[in-house]
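User: My collaborator sent over this chain with a note saying "see what the structure looks like." That's all I know about it. Can you take a look?
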Amino acid sequence: MTGGAFGSILAQLFHLTAAERKTLLVAGAASGMSAVFATPIAATSLAVALLLFEWRPRSFIPVATASVVAWLWRSSYGCRACLMRVFFWLASRRFLL
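Assistant: Without extra context I'll predict from the sequence alone. Here is the result:
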């Protein structure tokens, strides 16, 4: 499930307004971009500029928070171990030598 879909489902479960639902959708999308590319500032800027079209604190703060949390999660638990396993596997098969 993508971050945007998770935000939209969460908003529907709690019966939030359309503006709040859109903010959660964009927060999920920004957190997904931040987790994949490890760029929380760029993900927040891109999401707010292209998806929200507004720079208000009520929408910017949740998007920035979700993006930073996803980046911190990635850097502490995320892809580092996965990539190292792939590199070790390739090195053991002499693909990298």
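A starting point for your reply to your collaborator: Residues 3-92 form one domain.
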